[in-house]
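Quick one, tokens below:
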């Protein structure tokens, strides 16, 4: 799923124009109370102040969900945190447009004369005083080029669709996440920031996955490493293996994450309550 956030006056109007141009299943999430560029509650059914609209009611999206005044998102039940909500949407959608929410670490469009890029955690890909000042063709291209929001479930679905899935008796997965502390007395890690060599990291992961798939009894291997700022408790990296039996699956998952950490050029900066440092410079 390719996500984009639109923040500022007229965000909902631009979201509607953008979703009409996107070729694929699209979800739009926005504030039910109209805050931060949202445009009010929908005409759809409500649950505890959260509006959930039927497909393509307002913006042309296949799924449209709003944020209640209590800060909870509702779509597939209630979840804690926006990232967890997006994880639920990702396997079923090609695009997500977040209207009026500046918390997302995703490509962001800023609207309004007073908009400040430093106020949003995501990369600002366009800025204009009003929706009409945004090049929609360029925005669609940016949406397609943006790093996708990949989840473990996304990768599991992909291996389940493998041509050799009927020969498989096992799917093994590994999920790496941000550890808040190694020991009870350690300073708490607030977040990690990951940077990668564009193109090189993806090529190396693809090569590792292809080599592991050549093993006897292994039918498909998928890997994904998130980049940018990832907070304590959030997921970082996934390895998913489709194999004939559990032993091949477990062994390949372990080898896959070991090789990813050793061979893929991704660099980690750690921020704790006391300091900030590049981890590779301390190894």
């Amino acid at each position: 799923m390719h996500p984009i956030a639109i923040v500022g006056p007229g965000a909902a109007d631009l979201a509607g124009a953008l979703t009409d141009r996107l070729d694929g299943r699209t979800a739009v999430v926005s504030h039910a109370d109209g805050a931060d560029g949202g445009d009010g509650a929908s005409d759809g059914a409500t649950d505890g102040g959260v509006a959930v609209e039927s497909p393509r009611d307002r913006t042309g999206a296949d799924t449209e969900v709003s944020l209640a005044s209590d800060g909870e998102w509702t779509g597939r039940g209630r979840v804690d945190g926006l990232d967890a909500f997006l994880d639920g949407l990702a396997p079923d959608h090609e695009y997500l447009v977040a209207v009026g929410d500046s918390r997302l670490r995703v490509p962001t469009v800023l609207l309004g004369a007073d908009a400040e890029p430093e106020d949003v955690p995501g990369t600002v890909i366009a800025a204009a005083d009003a929706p009409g000042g945004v090049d929609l063709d360029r925005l669609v291209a940016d949406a397609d080029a943006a790093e996708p929001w990949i989840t473990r479930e996304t990768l599991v679905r992909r291996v389940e669709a493998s041509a050799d899935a009927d020969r498989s008796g096992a799917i093994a997965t590994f999920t790496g996440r941000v550890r808040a502390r190694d020991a009870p007395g350690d300073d708490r890690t607030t977040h990690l920031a990951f940077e990668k060599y564009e193109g090189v990291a993806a090529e190396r992961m693809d090569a590792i996955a292809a080599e592991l798939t050549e093993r006897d009894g292994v039918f498909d291997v998928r890997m994904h490493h998130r980049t940018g700022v990832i907070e304590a408790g959030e997921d970082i990296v996934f390895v998913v293996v489709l194999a004939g039996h559990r032993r091949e699956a477990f062994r390949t998952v372990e080898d896959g994450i070991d090789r990813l950490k050793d061979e893929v050029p991704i660099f980690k900066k750690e921020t704790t309550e006391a300091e900030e440092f590049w981890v590779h410079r301390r190894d």
